[in-house]
Amino acid sequence: MTFPAAPDVNSATAADGVFRKIARAASGSAGLSVCAVLLLVVLSGLLAPSSISAAALFAMLPFAAILGIASIGQQLVIQQRGLDLSVGGSISLVCVLATYALPAGAPFVDVIVQLAIAIVVAVGAGVVNGLLIARLHIPSLVTTIGMNAVLMGFVLWISGGTPGNAPDLLDRFALGRSMGIPNTVLIAIVVTVVAAVIATRTIAGRRFVLVGVNAPAARAAGIRTGRYEIGAYALAGLCYAIAGILLAGLLNVPNLTVGQIYLLATVAAVVVGGNSLSGGRASPFATVIGALFTTQLGQMLFAAGLDRSVQYLLQGAIVIAGASVHVFVPRWAAR
Amino acid sequence: MSAAQAMAAKPLDTGSAGSEPVSDRTPVLRLEAVTKSYGPVVALADVTLDIVPGEVHAIVGENGAGKSTLINVASGTISATSGSVLMDGQEVANPTPAVMRGGGIAVVHQHPALAPDLTVRENIALGLDGGLPDRGSLLAALAEVVSDGMGIDPDDKLSELNIAQWHVVEITKAMLLKPRILILDEPTEPFGKGETERLFRLIRRLVAAGVAVVYISHRLQEVLSIADIVTVLRDGRLIATMPRQSVREEDVVAKIAGRTMDRLFPDKISRPGAARLSVRDLSGAGFRNVTFDLPGGTIVGLAGIEGQGQRAFLRALVGLENSRGGSVLCDGSPVPFGDRAQSLRHGIGFVTDDRHAEGLFAGLPLSENLTVPVLAGMTRSWLISPAREAAAAEAAIARFSIKTPDAHATPRQLSGGNQQKVLFARELGAKPKVLVVDEPTKGVDVGARFEIYKALRTLSAEETAVLVLCSDALELQGLCDMVHVFSNGRIVETLEGDRVSEANIAGAMIGGTQTKRDAASVSRSTRWRRFAKGDLFPIVPVSVVTLAIMAVAAVLNPYYLTPFNLASMGSLMAVLALVAAGQACVFATGGIDLSSGPLAGLVVVLASFLIAKDGGSILLGVAAILVIASAVGLFHAGTILLLRLPPIVVTLATFVALGGLSLLLRPEPAGAISYDYIDLIESKVLGIPFGVLVALAVTLALAAAGSFTRIGRRLRAWGSDAHVALRLGIRPAAVTIPAYVASAFLSGLAGLLLAAQIGIGSAAVGTEYTLMGITAVVISGASVTGGRLSFLAILVAATLVQVTLNVTSFLNLDTAWQYWLVGGATILGAAIFSQLRGRSRGN
């Protein structure tokens, strides 16, 4: 990863720009989400004190991190005015590939090779999605709902119906901490920062945003819009792969349909983070905070004795509420 | 009596309610002091017009003179800013399209209000808000308008007809309304001489019968041959209303063009340099054999009546559309066709005429809008430098004196003129060799116009070649050194130097419009061809595949074709067919309902409470469940309409929430369902399971409703083209509510059948039906973007899906195949049908 570390004459103004951007982001939708998370922590303390103990938070954070990474993938697709319904199949398949036929004590190289295969497969599925959508003009949801089924077919075919065990190396990494911070959280931070830097500071990232904001205008300005659309699905696949690998390590024996809960959860995280569902600019920071919010909410409800079923109901309500807030706020602002 | 006298006579005071049918010059329609303004732009200024029965009233004027605005006010499509519309002397309080249509006004639109995926008969029924006309009388009506009805069959889909045939249908629709006032907007545009003459004979017959006709066209000779009264509009003002007998063609042309030079233009300082752009024999969709050179240092204009190929040519030139033949050389190097990125790289800059849809990035700050083509120059060690970007933006803002608070403002905060300057500044930042501008001053205030003209002149002085397309002849006169006039897809006249004048341009535009040849006799579509292109056709391949799979399975496994297996397949197929039919109702409108599977699952759980083993009335339970299911559909429609959320988001949320509700009600499978109920569903009538009969009956009912009811046509019209549907007066709620309620109701029905198969309240079933339902709809050939579908084909497709799932277990295939086949069929089906449709639409 490259940072603009080289001290040059303009570094002060460049840093200023970054700070200004952060300040602007904080006052925007991401800022609102941070407030929501803080409110939730207070609420958790009141309703279910056990859910904000250090132990509970450290148990929650890896799941929030994984959801955050997967949600950044979903966010990329939403930025291109699509919706990726194959996220569940993709994560499930990565979990299977990351655990398939690897003995607990598998050597480092074997594990890396297999994880690389998992990543290639997930990215490949994304590229196929993107090609079908951008080149054959099949609606995103028809394509991705079909792809989800195809990927689930591979899950059953490869696993033979029984989930495998993650190798110790992967377990240790996913459960481990560096400098006191869970590795999953560190990876999420890296993914988020890389995504944000690419989106705001690189030519490709800028063009990606332009295509999402107004594809016909981007085309008229000489940008090859199809490539960026395909890129969105491919990079989404990469995010799902990273999330799936960490999830496999965290759970050790991932259920075969473990990915399917990520379908609505990723959309919820993007929406709750305050990103628009109508495409264009979106903030990975906001999405990750959205993921943190929904995960902690789930933990709090669980600690308060509420069932999984209620969580599903609430998730549905949150998505509708979250999406409509951003439909209404611009209207009020415009008055 | 002259028209002026007629207008002065104020015939409103007659008070006679029973208007005489024959021409006594009592206006049947009067526009009084009508003004229509859009912000600062006045489209129509204080126009008073009388439309009298038994006369053809022609309205002529240049592009943008206010003709369309005038008829839109008269037909109730737009409401005037001030002034009033009177019918039979009575002021119309609230002129809407429905009210005006009720008053006897029929409009033949320049862009026909027809839904492409519906047949001619269905479109007529929609337009008349009545039932389907029978084939015989419709054929006769078509033949009345054009000889042999131009080969149109009443059961042809509009998407299979050409543009001339669309106009024939549009005119026929207006005739069938039996109007008292007929407004024709460029009715002969795609017609040849013979067809035009026939239409004129029809118009004369109508006029003789006392109909008032308003006729708008740019074909002046045609207009003068049919008109009784001629009204000239210019810049939204009524210039003159004259009886036909007392005017000559030259007078009318002079009145159309005779504008005073009210705008400032920079001096022309053209010193033509070498050709920077050479277009040779370029042909494409809408234009052909275009050849000219674009010298540096000059501004060259393209002119033409709307739709004569000049814009199609322009867009092909910049690479936004494809070209078929010829060549484009920019500074000697050939520019590839249909590749905007390449033509930009070759130095062709472009400013669009629709800056909102295709120009600006409205939500992004100016700094990011202005640097789009020069991003490569904004980087410092691979990363975009905000400092550089800001500096570049500030420089562009200063150079074009764009009025903005700062570079962080978004284009939304700017006036139209400043938005246009942003686009110019952006394109010029890339230092183009050739700048192509579509309507340089559209929606730009007068002050900013001069600055844009000046910028174009400065640019051309710097040896950039400038090509502008402009519908305002006066602007072309003031701005251009040379003007090419388009007609019928080719350049018909080139004006240079002093000859670049408004009168010459307008004359060339109007005079150059040759009458097209009559359409070569179009062969009438055959019954077979209509079937092959129709919504039912996919039944053939889908049935063949289904039967083939069953045959293979029957050969390989003797237990396949047993009554037991067939019955169990049939019952499962019934569930799927109902879910798919529900999904299709939503697909028809261009929406989607992801919640259909979980809703069917919830119904199974509900059945374990409401149709329980030792419960009360089965009928009551079934009714209660269907009411609950329909309520879910109402919730979807309400959320989509009131919160304006995309259907996918709403139904994805309920997809998960309904699953949660099922789990909440039945955390573990429990609650046996009434045996009486199960026996009822599993009973057989004539050897066919009851569920299959239900699915069959529902499918047939829906197929009939889709084709023969008003609501069915409206749903499909909405999915086919929502803009047309809105113009026909169909409201979003009238489509969204029935579609989503029907989908949820049918999922509920499917759940009721499923409940009998499961026999116990379980939250684990149902979800998979969402995908399977979508799969069945997609492989039935229904359009995934709405408009086209056949419930019969969906029933067959549902059978195919169920047969496929069932056969995997008989052929000892891995369960993975169930997923692959369903998922693969969805993608493959969508891909195949979208390619087939894409090709047929392209023709």
Based on the model shown, name its key terms:
heterodimer, A: mainly alpha, 2 strands, disordered N terminus, B: 843 residues, Rossmann fold, 3 domains, 6-stranded mixed beta sheet, 49% helix
Question: Strand arrangement, largest sheet of chain A?
Answer: 1-2
What is the count of helical runs of chain A?
14
First and last CA, distance of chain A: 44 Å
Give helix % range of chain A. Answer: over 70%
Tell me the overall shape of chain B.
globular
Structure description:
The complex is a heterodimer of chains A (335) and B (843). Chain A has one domain (60-334). The model of chain A is unreliable at 1-15 and 331-335 (pLDDT under 50). Chain A has a two-stranded antiparallel ribbon with strand order 1-2. Chain A has 335 residues and is mainly α. The longest helix of chain A is centred in the middle third of the chain and has 27 residues, at 108-134. Chain A has helices at 11-27, 29-47, 54-79, 87-99, 108-134, 140-159, 168-175, 183-201, 203-213, 215-220, 225-251, 262-272, 284-303, 308-334; strands at residues 177-178, 181-182. In chain A, a hairpin with a 2-residue loop joins strand 1 (177-178) and strand 2. Chain A contains 14 helices and two strands. Chain B is of the alpha/beta class. Chain B folds into three domains: 3-104 and 179-257, Rossmann fold (3-Layer(aba) Sandwich); 275-511, P-loop containing nucleotide triphosphate hydrolases (Rossmann fold); 580-766, no CATH class. Helices cover 49% and strands 16% of the residues of chain B. Chain B has 32 helices and 26 strands. Chain B has a six-stranded mixed β-sheet with strand order 6-7-8-3-9-10, with helices on both faces. In chain B, strand 17 (379-380) and strand 18 form a beta hairpin. In chain B, helix 20 runs parallel beside helix 31 (791-810), helix 21 runs parallel beside helix 26 (690-708) and helix 30 packs parallel to helix 32 (816-842). Chain B is globular and about 95 Å long. The two termini of chain B are 52 Å apart. At the A-B interface, helix 1, helix 6, helix 8, helix 9 and helix 10 of A face helix 11, strand 17, strand 18, helix 14 and helix 24 of B.
